[in-house]
Amino acid sequence: MSAAAARKAARPVQSIVDGEFVLTESDFRQIAAMLHGDAGIALPESKATLVYSRLAKRLRALGLSSFKDYCELVSEEAGLDERQKMLAALTTNVTRFFREPHHFDHLRDVVLPPLMDAARRGEKVRIWSAACSTGPEPYSAAMTILQAFPDAGRYDLKILATDIDPNVVAEGRAGLYSNDAASPVPPELRQRWMTRTPDGWRMGDDARSLVTFNELNLIGSWPMKGRFDAVFCRNVVIYFEDDTQSRIWGRMAALMHPGATLYIGHS
Questions:
Q1: Catalytic residue at 227?
Q2: Could you report the per-residue pLDDT of 2-31, keeping only the tens digit for each?
Q3: What are the residue ranges spanned by the domains of the chain?
């Protein structure tokens, strides 16, 4: 080994985040590349502290001593299950019932009346909640529909709720929410369309029957064949690069009826 190589090898490994585990620039770049390849999410180095805080608990659970070891694990075929856990940990799941409430007012007052007329004529009505997280968005839409049209369940009206994270999809299917999580639901809707549990609230059967939860990667294949009358895709695309955003909007447009409504977040 040359003197220069020896000096380089002797240097302490520099962590870009202070903590019990070493997270190097190389480790961060590998994690960012995997997240971008798997989910299309762009992760700048300014998010290094977030990556550390989200994944340090995974290192502890696995008994690993460094992010280098973790990167090796999730890069191997034997680590595919952990790679899914990494993706779930790094995917932001900020959600709440009736977030941006004017969207649901618009759905109730402007979008739904002609759609319900169509449903009563025997036509299909389809709404998509993309990146639905644990379900407050599609269930907010379901309660909005039931508030205006309590007999909606009699017709061919369905809400598709999708997310890349199988854990939050499972939570959405279960429809169980803490008191704090359910607090944004207006009391009259909570009393009518939700059921009290010892630990919080459960979505009632009428609302649950309108919503179907499935896993879906927005940069992957989309199995849906029919078209949608309204799509909620709020905030998730801010984590994508411009060209990825453009591709997603184009694919959504191709799955929407002429005159359909797309709800996006302020961001």
A1: no
A2: 544 444 444 556 888 888 898 999 999 999
A3: 3-90, 101-263
Site of tokens 């390849």: 37
Compute the distance between CA of residue 12 and CA of residue 108 in angstroms, rounded to an integer.
61
Instruction: Check: CB of residue 211 under 8 Å from CB of residue 135.
Output: yes
pLDDT confidence band for 46 (50 / 70 / 90): confident
Based on the number of CB atoms within 10 Å of its own CB, is 258 exposed (0-12), middle (13-18) or buried (19 or more)?
exposed
CATH number of 3-90: 1.10.155.10
Of the residues 38, 163, 165, 229, which is catalytic?
Answer: 163
Catalytic pick among 54, 108, 173, 227:
54
Annotated active-site residue 229? The verdict is no
pLDDT at 267: 67
Alpha carbon separation from 66 to 18, 77, 82 (Å, rounded): 13, 19, 15
